[in-house]
Inverse folding.
């Protein structure tokens, strides 16, 4: 598989099948698709020594690939600049995936982020599925400590 084929496959799996970055990385490692460092036999500079990278697909690497606008045909120069008043320069480049596929992959990332188990302490049945009609925000659940507080109707004080 060429590098472009790997990228198209990653986007197809994310957009059409809705798989997470972890599952895509696991699939790429299982199929032995080479990542760029292994293919180019690049060495990584760590301190004074050059070290070979592990050559393993990681979920973070897959996510960075999915959110990169270059693959949909737009290269943005200057986004990694450290200056405050940086000027971003956008230029068209040949697209590897269609804009529709790119947008579907972004929606998959957002959906997977909302329903990710590590983003909540408790698992609620309808988490992320119920929205407020007025502000379009998601409702969320909360746990109480099991303590019931009663208000005294005569004094208005709270009793435990």
């Amino acid at each position: 598989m060429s590098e472009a084929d790997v990228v198209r496959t990653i986007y197809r799996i994310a957009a059409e099948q809705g798989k997470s970055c972890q599952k895509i990385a696991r699939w790429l490692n299982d199929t032995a698709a080479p990542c760029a460092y292994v293919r180019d036999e690049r060495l990584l500079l760590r301190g004074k020594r050059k070290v070979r990278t592990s050559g393993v697909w990681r979920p973070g690497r897959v996510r960075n690939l999915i959110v990169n606008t270059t693959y949909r045909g737009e290269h943005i120069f200057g986004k990694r600049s450290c200056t405050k008043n940086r000027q971003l320069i956008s230029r068209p480049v040949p697209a590897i995936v269609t804009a529709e596929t790119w947008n579907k992959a972004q929606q998959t990332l957002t959906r997977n982020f909302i329903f990710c188990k590590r983003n909540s302490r408790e698992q609620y049945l309808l988490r992320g599925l119920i929205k407020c009609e007025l502000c379009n925000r998601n409702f969320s659940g909360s746990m109480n400590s099991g303590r019931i507080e009663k208000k005294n109707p005569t004094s208005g004080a709270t009793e435990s």
In short: The mean pLDDT is 77.
